[in-house]
Amino acid sequence: MRLLRYSRGTCFNDNADCFTLDDYASRIHVLMKYQKATPEQVKEWHETDYWMKMDFDPIVMFVAIPTIIQVVVIGLMFGAMAINDLIF
Fold first, then answer.
1. Does residue 67 register a pLDDT over 90?
2. Is the pLDDT of residue 44 over 90?
């Protein structure tokens, strides 16, 4: 496969539909039309959004739950190895 390099983009196989990163950035900018939030909207967002309210214990969310998942998965792995050892 021949790779062509342009100023800041990459094209494969002389594709005429290929565009550079600058073109991509301008297309994304056109697609992402948004309005700036008012201070009231920001305050409402901070009060109603689950992650912004911090209405949870981060230690449980980001440490305890992943630890439990890892312990269960390693137990399943050891169980699968034990079953394989019995069968084979």
1. yes
2. yes
Burial class (CB in 10 A: 0-12, 13-18, 19+), 17: exposed
Which run of H or of E encompasses 12? strand 10-12
- Tokens describing residue 7: 């100023």
Checking if the pLDDT of 63 tops 90, the result is yes
Whether the CB-CB separation of 51 and 57 falls below 8 Å is answered with no
Q: Which two tokens stand for residue 39?
A: 């201070």
Please state the separation of Cα 51 from the chain's center in Å. Answer: 16
pTM: 0.49
- Rounded to whole angstroms, what are the CA distances from 12 to 7, 21, 22, 56? 14, 14, 17, 48
